[in-house]
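Dear H.,

Thanks for agreeing to be a second pair of eyes. The structure we're designing against is below in token form, covering all 565 positions.
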């Protein structure tokens, strides 16, 4: 096969770049995976709780959450987490480690896709490493979210389609459809819409292609493209059909699960009960999670979208960009929207734009790199200024700011030298990558550890408690404690409830100081957390924008009575 010969040659010629890509992914994506110093996402707490409860109860086919079958989420993410917890032991790191592997795999697939299309190892490495440094990968590679699996399978299916277009071998089409079928267990039937658009965008371009004399030359391609879609979508049914048969034969719940999985959950996004959120959330989220290369992605996307392709690989690249636009329009229809909905399409944008850069003259994208450098430098200076103010106002150690200031000064001098000497695109490219890497390192190793104030203490006598009562307005708060203290029995209670878990036996957690202190309890320790929606005025106040979480333990007399039983 064409791919086999290429792959062997790639391993021999690209070993250094692939090894470097592995090391850089480990350095930039793994730190912080086992702790709280990360950019959080609300749903992760529920995902982790579902994984642990399913593993503890051996409920593998139907994952459980809060003692009830979690029928509203596809099972693949939970299966992956259960496997990882079984392999490494129950921990945040074990549950998040698959996300790292999936995003690293996505980076490698971008590399292989560009190399297969004829790109140089240096170009393939630059684009794949730039993708690794995006905010989306930085955040979600440390989270237990379905977007990690979705991202990997979208770029995997796209690379198989690229190989089919280049080699004309339909076995790759069959494999792409098969992978698309597996991904239905990640996102449900919506993924089939994604993959169908990615495949169909090339078909539309090919069928409606006009000859230079204005004649229609795509008529002969109609039946070939129709056959391609039949093969692709037929092979995508293999895994879902097997899974459906297993569900229906295993339990009566299978039918209910499929009804919710295929219809209820997806139609719920259009429900009038859900407020219709702004359409701008979708494109803004795409650019946000492309940072610090947002400007380069936007400029490359816009310019290449309407550029007439001059080669087969550029036609494929153009089809990927049009597919992203089409999927974006799909996400504008439901009422429910979120900034990360297009996150899985970002690697497709990097691959699609990268296919246009193959065998191009360096001057054609030198301006784009320069603009992105100034954009990233400007954002870095804003972040630095904010952290200087943050550190001075709160009386924190400012050594990290001094170090990052020196780093940005060196970056500025390096950029100025490149412009004076006319060093060219390779130097400007390296400048952009180093600046992006430095900014993300500053965020991970300096900013996040200082601004992430966990509700759960990392030390103190409370962490040894085995029975805990969480008194708070938000029941999801209990999930945070349950995930952080897996050996403890944790119950949630709403403040003021007539019947709650303040029983004189359990340790108590209050998010507001109780007056008076519950009978039979004494204050054990406190924990500072940020107030919700902190304002500048609150930061300048004596509380510095913080409030306390109060932890109480049962009094000795109660403990003694308990021990005597």
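And this is the sequence the design step returned. I haven't edited it by hand at all.
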């Amino acid at each position: 096969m064409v791919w086999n010969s290429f792959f062997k040659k790639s391993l021999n010629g690209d070993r250094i770049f692939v090894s470097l890509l592995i090391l850089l992914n480990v350095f930039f994506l793994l730190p912080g995976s086992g702790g709280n110093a990360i950019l959080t996402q609300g749903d992760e707490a529920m995902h982790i709780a579902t994984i642990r409860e399913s593993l503890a109860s051996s409920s593998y086919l139907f994952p459980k959450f809060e003692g009830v079958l979690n029928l509203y989420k596809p099972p693949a993410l939970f299966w992956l987490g259960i496997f990882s917890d079984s392999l490494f032991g129950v921990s945040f790191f074990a549950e998040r480690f698959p996300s790292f592997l999936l995003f690293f795999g996505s980076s490698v697939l971008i590399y292989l896709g560009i190399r297969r299309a004829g790109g140089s190892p240096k170009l393939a490495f630059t684009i794949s490493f730039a993708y690794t440094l995006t905010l989306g990968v930085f955040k979600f590679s440390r989270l237990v979210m379905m977007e990690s699996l979705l991202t990997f399978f979208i770029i995997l299916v796209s690379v198989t389609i690229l190989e089919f277009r280049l080699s004309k071998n339909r076995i790759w089409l069959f494999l792409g459809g098969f992978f698309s079928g597996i991904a239905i267990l990640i996102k449900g039937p919506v993924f089939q819409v994604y993959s169908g658009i990615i495949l169909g965008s090339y078909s539309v371009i090919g069928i409606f292609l006009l000859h230079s004399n204005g004649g229609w030359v795509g008529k002969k391609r109609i039946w070939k493209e129709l056959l391609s879609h039949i093969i692709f979508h037929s092979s995508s049914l293999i895994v879902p059909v097997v899974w459906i048969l297993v569900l229906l034969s295993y339990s009566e719940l299978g039918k209910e699960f499929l009804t919710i999985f295929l219809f209820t959950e997806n139609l719920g996004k259009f429900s009038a009960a859900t407020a219709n959120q702004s359409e701008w959330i979708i494109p803004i989220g795409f650019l946000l999670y492309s940072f610090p290369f947002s400007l380069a992605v936007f400029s490359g996307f816009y310019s290449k979208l309407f550029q007439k392709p001059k080669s087969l690989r550029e036609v494929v690249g153009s089809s990927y960009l049009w597919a992203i636009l089409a999927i974006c329009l799909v996400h504008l229809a439901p009422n429910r929207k979120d900034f990360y909905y297009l996150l899985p399409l970002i690697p497709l944008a990097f691959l699609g734009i990268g296919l246009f850069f193959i065998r191009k003259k360096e001057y054609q994208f030198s301006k784009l790199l320069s603009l992105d450098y100034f954009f990233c430098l400007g954002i870095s200076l804003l972040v630095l200024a904010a952290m200087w103010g943050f550190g001075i106002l709160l009386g924190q150690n400012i050594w990290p700011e001094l170090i990052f200031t020196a780093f940005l000064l060196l970056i500025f001098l390096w950029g100025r030298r490149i412009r004076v000497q006319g060093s060219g695109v390779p130097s400007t490219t390296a400048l952009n990558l180093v600046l992006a890497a430095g900014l993300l390192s500053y965020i991970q190793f300096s900013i996040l550890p200082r601004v992430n104030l966990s509700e759960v203490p990392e030390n103190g006598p409370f962490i040894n408690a085995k029975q805990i009562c969480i008194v708070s307005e938000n029941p999801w708060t209990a999930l945070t404690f349950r995930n952080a203290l897996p050996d403890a029995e944790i119950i949630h209670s709403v403040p003021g409830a007539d019947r709650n878990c303040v029983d004189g036996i359990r340790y108590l957690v209050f998010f507001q100081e109780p007056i008076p202190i519950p009978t039979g309890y004494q204050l054990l320790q406190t924990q500072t957390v940020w107030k919700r929606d902190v304002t500048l005025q609150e930061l300048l106040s004596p509380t510095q924008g913080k409030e306390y979480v109060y932890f109480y333990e049962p009094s000795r007399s109660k403990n003694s009575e308990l021990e005597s039983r």
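Two observations from my side: Residues 2-33+42-360 form one domain. The radius of gyration is 26 Å.

Warmly,
E.
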